[in-house]
Structure to design on (202 residues):
């Protein structure tokens, strides 16, 4: 009896008399393949709108660049905290650990109040305190004026205030004789009683 041996050239062909093997799936999307459940992709947490920025100065030993002027050592047992002093370097370090309120650091509250008081008395100027330079600034018609403290700022603004006063109280020609007649008398004008006037040249 002859026996049929499958040819090695055609291993996929079944010998005669055997049932055909089921076709194997050829593509990954074949519906006959078992479906593997996919892992859910983790959802990213939303980033905060205003993230807290890291402090630039944590201790005197980790400063990126040396600060100008004298500085105080950190308080013992409290790294990152400096004594309450007036050194510009120490104030810069303390201000970096404070949040802004209305655009200003709490470290410079006193200076901002002083600048606001000067601004109130000089309505025609723009006066503010610069935290980066730790100095007062004023915008005048002649340019910018910088002062280290409020006293120096008032001295710098005195010539400008005097010129503004002269312009505001300038008299027209022909009124000098009328004011000379009021010298030594109590005359009630529209802005209040006038005791005396000096002669103003025409």
């Amino acid at each position: 009896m002859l026996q049929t041996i499958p040819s090695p050239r055609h291993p996929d062909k079944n010998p005669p008399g055997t049932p055909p093997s089921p076709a194997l799936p050829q593509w990954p999307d074949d519906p006959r393949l078992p479906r593997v459940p996919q892992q859910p992709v983790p959802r990213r947490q939303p980033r905060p709108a205003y993230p807290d920025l890291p402090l630039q100065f944590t201790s005197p030993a980790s400063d990126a660049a040396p600060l100008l002027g004298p500085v105080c050592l950190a308080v013992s047992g409290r790294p990152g905290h400096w004594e309450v002093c007036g050194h510009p370097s120490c104030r810069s370090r303390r201000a970096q650990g404070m949040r802004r309120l209305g655009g200003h650091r709490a470290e410079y509250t006193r200076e901002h109040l002083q600048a606001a008081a000067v601004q109130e008395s000089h309505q025609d100027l723009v006066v503010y305190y610069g935290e980066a330079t730790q100095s007062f600034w004023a915008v005048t018609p002649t340019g910018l004026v910088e002062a280290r403290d409020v006293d120096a700022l008032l001295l710098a603004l005195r010539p400008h205030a005097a010129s503004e006063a002269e312009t505001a109280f300038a008299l027209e020609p022909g009124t000098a004789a009328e004011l000379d007649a009021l010298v030594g008398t109590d005359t009630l004008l529209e802005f209040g009683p006038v005791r005396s006037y000096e002669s103003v040249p025409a």
